[in-house]
Amino acid sequence: MRLFSLLAFALLLCAGCTSQPASDSSAGADREVSPEKPIQVVATVGMVADLVRAVGGDLVELDVLCGPGVDPHLHQPSRDDSLALTSAEMVFYCGLMLEGKMSDILINQARSRPVIAVTEALEQSQLLEPEAFGGHFDPHVWMDVSAWEKCLEPVVTGLSEFDPAHAEFYQENAARYREEMQALHAYGKKVISSIPETSRVLITSHDAFNYLGRAYGLDVQGIQGISTESEAGLQRVNELVDLLVEKNVKSVFIESSVPPKSVYSLIEGARARGHEVTVGGELYSDAMGSEGTYEGTYIGMLDHNLTLIARALGGEAPEKGLNGKLTAPE
After folding, report:
1. List of residues 6+ apart from 41 with CB closer than 8 A
2. Sign for the pseudo-dihedral over CA of 113, 286, 133, 78
3. pTM over cut 0.90
């Protein structure tokens, strides 16, 4: 079934959410898994990797294909990626077309090992299908912490089927991580609601923040559509300049994995209309922060985004975020 879904993903341009692998998902049951002999796992993006890391702990060894600052929409699998996948015992990916250019290699891997889409846990009713996405679901589900929390379940199930001896360990780890995610979700609701209602407008480089807007009550506007390869049209820029002036929005945001040129076009356009707009800061969209930093974790990534947005748009949030770990702005 996983293989079929991946084929549908590539051939019908619909992100398949998998349920059963083409290979035996209990393939690890005949070997002992331990911290000294962890499961070799590949994750396509950092947000997925953090789910696996939180559940698997020291029983998994992770290789991430798209690191900090890498746009997964555009990522072309390299020779190193192919080698990592060949040596992996399991592969976890987001799905919903996020890894569009990696579809062929994922199809090939599904023939010989479990290849699991974490978004398979979500019902279609939980997914957004904005007009700009051309009839496809928006893959940026991690921007809604309450939705991304549900994506823990395929990770727990996949690891438990591969390594039944440690199923309870995986379940307990997931339960602890859920508590952290629920605290972050509540924090997001609190700090975003502190922004004056007329100022709850989030303008960024591309449409990566629709789920964040739905979850926390922001009017989200992206300059580009689903593809970060597209050029922002003059008409779209003019529409957003009108919105900035009408709503008296003071800040727009750049993204860590998207060139900021189009955002500066907005600022220049607003200035020509006599309205001063500043860059509110850099948000993490399709990739997390630098490895080894708090912002380089999923919790830190969203803590950074929610805290920065709230403070830049006139709300109240602690400078160092929910857990007091954010890097202080320079």
Report:
1. 52, 56, 60, 61, 62, 63, 88, 89, 90, 91, 92
2. negative
3. no
| Tens-place pLDDT, residues 251-284 | 999 887 677 778 888 899 999 999 999 999 999 9
Cα first-last separation, the chain: 50
Contact between 153 and 116 (Cβ < 8 Å) = no
All structural domains of the chain: 2-185 (3.40.50.1980), 195-312 (3.40.50.1980)
Q: What is the DSSP string of 184-199?
A: HHHHHHHHHHTS-GGG
Residue 281 Ramachandran class (φ > 0 left, ψ -120 to 50 alpha, else beta): left
d(CA 265, CA 132): 20
Are residues 296 and 68 in contact, defined by beta-carbon separation less than 8 angstroms? Answer: yes
Quick check: 160 and 171 in contact, CB under 8 A? yes
CA distance 32 to 34: 6
Residue ranges of alpha helices (H) inside 71-151 are 79-87, 103-109, 145-150
Q: What pLDDT is recorded for position 329?
A: 64
pLDDT on residue 10: 41
Report the alpha-carbon distance of residue 233 to residue 252 in Å, rounded: 17
78: confidence class by pLDDT, cuts 50, 70, 90 = confident
Cα–Cα distance measured from residue 264 to residue 237, given in angstroms and rounded to the nearest whole number: 10
Contact 242, 270 (CB under 8 A): no
Please, which pLDDT band fits residue 69 given cuts at 50, 70 and 90?
A: low
The stretches of 254-297 forming alpha helices (DSSP H) are: 261-272
Report how far residue 173's alpha carbon sits from residue 176's, in angstroms, rounded to the nearest whole number.
Answer: 5
Q: What is the 3-state secondary structure (H, E, C) of 240-262?
A: HHHHHHHHCCCEEEEECCECCHH
229-233 mean pLDDT:
52
> Cα–Cα distance between 53 and 213 in angstroms, integer?
27
